[in-house]
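Entry 14. Ran structure prediction on the chain below.
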Amino acid sequence: MLFDETPILNRVTIFTGSALGTTSVYSLAAQSLGQAAVADNIGLVYGGGKVGLMGVIADAFLANGGEVLGVIPESLMEKELGHSGLSRLEVVPDMHSRKARMAELGDGFIAMPGGAGTLEELFEIWTWQQLGFHHKPVALYNVDGFWQPLLDMLEQMTQSGFIKRDFFESLIVESDPHELLAAMRAWTPPAPKWN
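Output, C-alpha cells:
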C-alpha cells in the first residue's frame, strides 16, 4: 500500500475548481458541505488556494470552526494564490508532491464541480483505489446534476468492459452533503483489480 488505511473519516480531501462556475448553486453547495462536515467533526484537506470554489470550501470549513489543511505548489504560492487563513498551509515543490500529500492526509476523497484539474485529481485517486494503493472512499458531490454526463460516460466504459462493475458501483455519488458523508462513512472497498 502507498498510503495508510484509515477506517475513520477524520479528514476529507476535496478536489474542486479555481473558478466559481456560472451559477451561485456551486458556492452554496460548497458552503453546505463545509457546514455538514464540520458538524460531523471532519476536517478539510484541499489544494490550498484562496480563489474559486477552492476558496469557498476552505472558508466554509473555517467559518464553522473546522480544521483546514492546504497543500500548494511553490509556483502557485509565488503567484499569491495561497490562502493565508488556514489551520496549516504546506508549500510543496510541484503538483505531483501536492497530490501525493493530499492523498496521504485525507481519509476519503470528494470531487466537487470543477474543471480539468479536478478531473485529473479524481481519476488519479480513483485509479489508485482500483489498483489497491489505498482503501479510501472516492465520492462525487453531484451538485445540480453536474457529474451526470461523466457518470453516463463511466457507465458506457463499464458496459464496454473497460471498468469493472464493482469499481463503478464503489464510486459514491450524492447531491446532499449529509448523505454524501454518511455514505463515505459506511463505504467498504471493492477487491483490488489485481489480486
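The two ends are 13 Å apart (CA to CA). Will compare against last week's run tomorrow.
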